[in-house]
């Protein structure tokens, strides 16, 4: 059985990044739901559960969920030292708070931020894995 080459600190950082990616997938899903509603896919009378149609949450509800989730992700990343995403996360939270003003440009910017942060999370994960494996042989991993 081979030993895990990652230090405890690197394993903790990877765990935070994994949790962040799970939450970020939810952020991405909410942004796409908001974009679909703004694009006109869900316009109309809606429906009730008795009609066999699931009631869709409004854009305002989705934006509220988005704002709370983005703040949660921001706090999670800042606690573990990943502050490079702070500006983008703050901008996304601000776009969610503004709501329905300038909907098309805001939706475009939200998608841009989501994709950029998702790419950054992947790069941060590679950096944690690669940086920890570049220790000189015989050097003990630093404790978290």
Would you kindly provide a written description of the structure presented here, covering whatever features stand out?
The protein is an all-alpha fold and 144 residues long. It has one domain (9-40, 53-131). Mean pLDDT is 79; it is low at 40-52. It is elongated and about 50 Å long. The chain starts with 7 loop residues before the first helix and ends in an 11-residue tail after the last helix. The protein is built from four helices and no strands.
Distance between the termini: 24 Å
Structural class category: mainly alpha
Spans of at least 5 consecutive residues whose pLDDT stays below 50 are 40-52
Number of strands: 0
The sequence of SSEs as H and E is: HHHH
Mean pLDDT: 79
Quick take:
The chain has 144 residues and is an all-alpha fold. It is 67% helix and 0% strand.
Quick tags:
elongated, 144 residues, mainly alpha, single chain
Task: Indicate the topology.
Blueprint: H1 8-38, H2 59-79, H3 86-98, H4 103-133
């Amino acid at each position: 059985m081979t030993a895990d080459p990652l230090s405890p600190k690197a394993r903790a950082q990877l765990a935070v990044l994994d949790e962040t990616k799970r939450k970020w997938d939810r952020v991405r899903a909410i942004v796409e739901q908001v974009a679909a509603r703004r694009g006109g896919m869900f316009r109309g009378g809606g429906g009730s559960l008795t009609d066999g149609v699931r009631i869709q949450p409004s854009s305002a509800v989705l934006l509220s969920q988005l704002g709370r989730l983005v703040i949660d992700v921001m706090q999670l990343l800042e606690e573990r030292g990943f502050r490079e995403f702070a500006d983008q996360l703050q901008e996304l939270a601000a776009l969610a708070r503004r709501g329905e003003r300038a909907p098309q440009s805001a939706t475009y910017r939200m998608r841009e931020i989501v994709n950029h942060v998702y790419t950054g999370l992947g790069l941060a994960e590679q950096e944690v894995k690669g940086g920890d494996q570049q220790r000189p042989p015989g050097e003990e991993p630093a404790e978290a």
